[in-house]
Every structure is written in structure tokens, then in C-alpha cells.
Design goal:
single chain, alpha/beta, Rossmann fold, 2 domains, 4-stranded parallel β-sheet, 8 strands
């Protein structure tokens, strides 16, 4: 995998050097994510595998290279390398109806494809399956395991409960690295995070314009993945690049030429393996203008109250909320972006996707937004009913038209 990321970095860098005046935002984004991937596989780094909602800015300020395990699951799927790793996990007893993000990564662990971490940081949000898989990691690698229990209610007591855990986590990390938390480095990371957050707000506000300057791929899963580097200068630079490109598209009138007829919201995560759903939507003039998790739901980080600020942020993330709060968030996005319909990929084995489909459909129906629930595995393409999915998407778009 080190060689895989290294080759990607060399390839993207060469293309960027050939077009130094180009915008190339997605290439720059892919380059930074590949650099993170390479770092995860570099000897001598302090590595932590984590849950999706872990405080990556805090960990980064302590010299930890960290990533949520689902990132690797998505990568394996996007490169069509997940199949034999899924089979490896299934042969070891992992159920075929469990989350394929986690099965793919567990297969990678069993095949020694994943780098060995120094320790594991689990999070109860977004799902207990994710918590269980990183616990399996800890057992497999015989590494220490720290759990962050994230409350689902935004109260003073809940914030304090999580803030205390975050402070305890810094002691856990220091015990392994023999380096104490530097308030100065944490302050710098939080400042970068605040800069990134403001740029994200600007990006999402630009995406709300009608017609929207985004296309169906531009902000794919952006809100989830960018969190890995928001506490760094690189994160600020990438967010600035996305904002600059959207402004460029608006100035040059590209958004007016996009033939936008239908504005869509994508719920939860995108389909990770090659599947031309974006191209099919383009054919019908349907545009995904917002992903559910592409939103800034937190206040600026306070360097004088870092643990409290980070705790508030973690609780505010839609996947940390109870379902009723998550639905209210989607309803608000529907109004802000003037949505015509929503696509909900009911990812197999996922409580956030399949488990809430009825409630999500009803909640969005209450604000006159129809929902297409797709029975699909977003990572495992082996059972993809491609024709059926394409037919249902086409019928849904025709209905909205």
C-alpha cells in the first residue's frame, strides 16, 4: 500500500506540474489524501486507527498520524480491490450482511495489508459496528484501546462528560508516545480548524446558489473526509482551493450552463466503487447540490477551552444525534438548498442507512421532499443489481420532473 500511495502521489504531482496555472482542485485534494495514506504506511510514524468522529486535529497536534478505518474500506472499494478482502473476512466468520466498509478493512487486517497501529481510538458514533471492528483491530494487533463514548444529547452535562474523556485520551496518548500535550501546538491546530470551518461555510453557501456551481462529484463525501486534515495548513489550503474553484465557475458562468433541472440531496455516504450514477443523473439534468454530512454544525473552537469545544463539535455532528435531530437537520438542508428530492442509499448492514429509512422518508415527506431509498451495498459491488438501480433512479427523476 505504501507503493500504491507513492505512485499516486508521483502521478498527480506530475500532472499538476504539467498544468501549473490550472485549478485542478480535485487533484490537489486527492494528492493530500494520498500523502496521508502514504504517511499511515510509513515506518516510524505514530499511528492510530480511529472511529469516524475521532478528534483528528487534537491527535495531530500530539504528533499522531490518524485516520478512520472506513477511509481504507472506501479506498479498497474505489480501486476495486475489496472483493478478495471481503471474502477473507467472510471466511473468518464475519457475516455477509454486516457493513462492508468494516468487512473489507477486517479482511485487510487478516491479510496484513493494514499498517500496525501504536494504539486504537474507538468512538461510539456513528455506529457500534465501527466500534466493534476497531476493538477487533485492538485484539488482532494486541494494542491498547481507548473508547470515546459520545452522548446523543446536547446538554451541559453531556458536553462535560465527553470533554473529560477527551482530556483523559490525551493522557492515554502521552503514555504511549512519552510526549505531553502541547497547548501551543493544539492552539495552532484549532486555529487551522477554525479557518477550515469558515471556508467550508463559504463553500456550502456557494453550493446553495441556483443553479449551483457544484457538479455531482465535486463535493462527494467531502464533509466526512476533509475532517482528517482540517487542523492543518494543508486542510486550509484545500478548502481554499474548493472555494476558489466554485467562485471561478460562478464568475465564468459555468453554473449557468450546467442545465440544472432537479436539485438533489444525497443522504449518508456515496457509492464507493465505479458505478455511473453521477453520469446518469447528469443525463437527466439532476444535480446533487448537497450531501447530508456536508455541513458545519459546530461553533468555532475556543483554544482556552479546547476539550469543551471539541466535545461540542463531536456531539453536533449529524451521526452523533438521535434520529429525530438528524431528520431535523436534513429538513433544514432541504430548505436551505431548495431541494427537489433526496437519494438515500440504504447501505447493507448500516443502522444509519437501512435502520432509519422509514423515519427519514417520513421526515422529508413532511417538508415535501420525496426520497428514493436504494437497497444497495456502497462498498461491496459483488451483489450489485445494476439494472434495477438504474431503472429506479431513472423513474425517480422522471417523477420529480
Amino acid at each position: 500500500m505504501y507503493e500504491h500511495f507513492d505512485n499516486i502521489i508521483k502521478g498527480i504531482t506530475e500532472k499538476l506540474n504539467q498544468d501549473p496555472e490550472g485549478i485542478n482542485t480535485r487533484k490537489k485534494y486527492a494528492l493530500e489524501m494520498s500523502k496521508l495514506g502514504k504517511k499511515l504506511y510509513t515506518r516510524g510514524e505514530n499511528i492510530a486507527w480511529c472511529g469516524v468522529t475521532a478528534p483528528f486535529d487534537l491527535l495531530g497536534s500530539m504528533g499522531i498520524t490518524s485516520c478512520f478505518v472506513e477511509f481504507v474500506g472506501a479506498l479498497l472499494s474505489s480501486t476495486e480491490a475489496a472483493g478478495f478482502l471481503l471474502e477473507e473476512a467472510e471466511d473468518a466468520g464475519f457475516a455477509t450482511d454486516s457493513c462492508a466498509y468494516h468487512r473489507a478493512v477486517m479482511g485487510a487486517v487478516l491479510k496484513n495489508v493494514m499498517p500496525e497501529p501504536d494504539f486504537i481510538i474507538g468512538t461510539s458514533s456513528p455506529c457500534t459496528a465501527g466500534l466493534a471492528i476497531v476493538e477487533n483491530f485492538a485484539n488482532q494487533y494486541k494494542k491498547d484501546f481507548f473508547i470515546l463514548n459520545i452522548p446523543q444529547n446536547y446538554t451541559k452535562d453531556a458536553v462535560k462528560f465527553l470533554a473529560d474523556q477527551l482530556e483523559e485520551m490525551t493522557h492515554f496518548v502521552s503514555d504511549h508516545t512519552k510526549r505531553p500535550l502541547s497547548k501551543e501546538k493544539l492552539g495552532i491546530a484549532l486555529d487551522y480548524f477554525n479557518q477550515s470551518s469558515q471556508l467550508l461555510k463559504d463553500i456550502y453557501d456557494l453550493a446553495k446558489i441556483k443553479p449551483s456551481p457544484v457538479d455531482n462529484k465535486f463535493l462527494k463525501d467531502f464533509g466526512t473526509v476533509i475532517g482528517l486534515i482540517m487542523g492543518t495548513q494543508q486542510g486550509v489550503d484545500i478548502c481554499q482551493a474548493f472555494k476558489d474553484e466554485l467562485n471561478h465557475r460562478i464568475r465564468t458562468g459555468q453554473h449557468q450552463a450546467s442545465k440544472e433541472k432537479i436539485r438533489l440531496m444525497w443522504i449518508q455516504n456515496r457509492i464507493q466503487y465505479p458505478f455511473p450514477i453521477n453520469e446518469r443523473l447528469d443525463d437527466f439534468g439532476a444535480k446533487i447540490v448537497v450531501d447530508e454530512l456536508n455541513d458545519v454544525t459546530w461553533e468555532p473552537m475556543d483554544p482556552d477551552k479546547p476539550f469543551e469545544s471539541i466535545a461540542k463539535r463531536m456531539i453536533s455532528i449529524p451521526f452523533s444525534m438521535d434520529t429525530s435531530e438528524r431528520i431535523r437537520h436534513m429538513q433544514a438542508l432541504s430548505g436551505d438548498y431548495r431541494i427537489d428530492g433526496a437519494i438515500n442509499p440504504c447501505h447493507w448492514g448500516c443502522r444509519q442507512g437501512t435502520g432509519t429509512r422509514g423515519l427519514v422518508s417520513k421526515g422529508l415527506k413532511d417538508v415535501n421532499v420525496p426520497v428514493l431509498n436504494l437497497e444497495i451495498d456502497c462498498v461491496d459491488s459483488r451483489n450489485l443489481a445494476r439494472g434495477q438501480i438504474e431503472t429506479r433512479v431513472e423513474a425517480f427523476i422522471e417523477m420529480l420532473s
